[in-house]
Amino acid sequence: MKVFLLLYVVTILLLAGVYSQFFRTPKKGDSSGAERCFCQLKGALDDCSCSVETIDGYNNLKIYPRINSLMQKSYFRYWKVDLQRGCPFWHDDSACAMRFCSVQTCTEVSEALKASGLSDIQDVPEGIKGTPPPNNGYTYIQPKNTGDEDKEDCDKQNELGYLNTTLSKETVAGFVRWAAHDDALDNFCHLEDELSSNSTYVDLLLNPERYTGYVGTSAHRIWKTIYQENCFKPKRGTNQYTDLSNIGEMCLEKRAFYRAISGLHSSINIHLAAKYLFSDGTGFSATPVWGANAEEFQKRFDPELTNGEGPHRLKNLYFLYLLELRALAKARSYLTNWNYYTGITDEDQDVQSAVKELLLVIKNFPEHFDETTMFAGGLQAYKLKEEFKHHFFNISRIMDCVGCDKCRLWGKLQVTGLGTALKILFSGNVEYDSSTQQDLDTARHTNFQLTRNEVVALFNAFARLCNSIYELENFRRMTTR
Length: 481
Known about the structure:
The protein is mainly α and 481 residues long. The chain is 54% helix and 3% strand.
């Protein structure tokens, strides 16, 4: 009986310990600090007509449930990425040694499945790997020969009247290079990963974004370089985040760029605090436990611990949300007509319908960001946009300097998604008329093109922002109970 009681007590204590780790809240007396993160997070957002409350309600009730379900589908869960490309800015061999930093590529998973004989587990669908969909709609069909009479008529044609419509391989290759060059002019980030020989598909559901233990000089250097060398910022301020009290001194375009990068940083920090890797007191546990850590959230966003910047960082998250939301709305017709093909027939049909429904919900958002107020004003505006693009190009390359493979994966994905949103908003090639829906042919006629990697990154990056705003409500409940 005594042994039974002892085992019962030990079990209760263990369960209590796991519970307290999984839902860690601030220490006694610190709850007001966590509450301070939200006391200024309300009302209208700068440079927008929208309010925090409007976004919270619309996202948490209408958008987040839909996009979260959509990102579980095969088309969006596989992304092609090169995690071997070296850092172009500095030599850094300080790779994260934590086992939670590693990424399981689909190639590795496939090899492991073959070795184990578990062939029933899904590999990358053939449609994603390049098998073309049936009846593409743009397939050239050779006309049937009507007989020898037609051949004789052709033979009688005068040689000077003959038009040779065949193209040499060199000419076709030239057209491809021209098209790639024209498309690159619109890009806001580097997109070599899709064509790199070192690229491989990664299952995003098997490699979720969460805290890995990647900290220290290497991790801090990434954001420091982004803010201090590759980002527009106010003139004063010495820390890596910059004093935001004088951000109004910047023009709208530079301010929007800074706020977008700050919003991305905030979103990533929320993900890490919401999926925090808890320690067992002697190092990270052999059996990892991830959960919401309100203390970590407070450290990153409490105004008293961030020189008053915490609430501004959170508002910048909302600004970035509106930016990417508007990009999806602007490209709605193009994305609705996109072929989300994997070869899994039932799922492909569901995804096509789900994307259409999601984009309609996004279109009906009541207070969209107005991108037409940016980069308007002749030569000076053009120079500013090129500078804007140059800064973002550098940021996309800095992602190759991240020492944690999982952090690099999600950093590259979210930066590519933001770069795709900027391409949609500011390339000038998406002619959208809300009264007459543009179709795919019209978009192609305006030279606007996206790759599969861009589309997958665009939706996943926005889904991460939706998740961040959803998690904010969870942290709000944790810190006020």
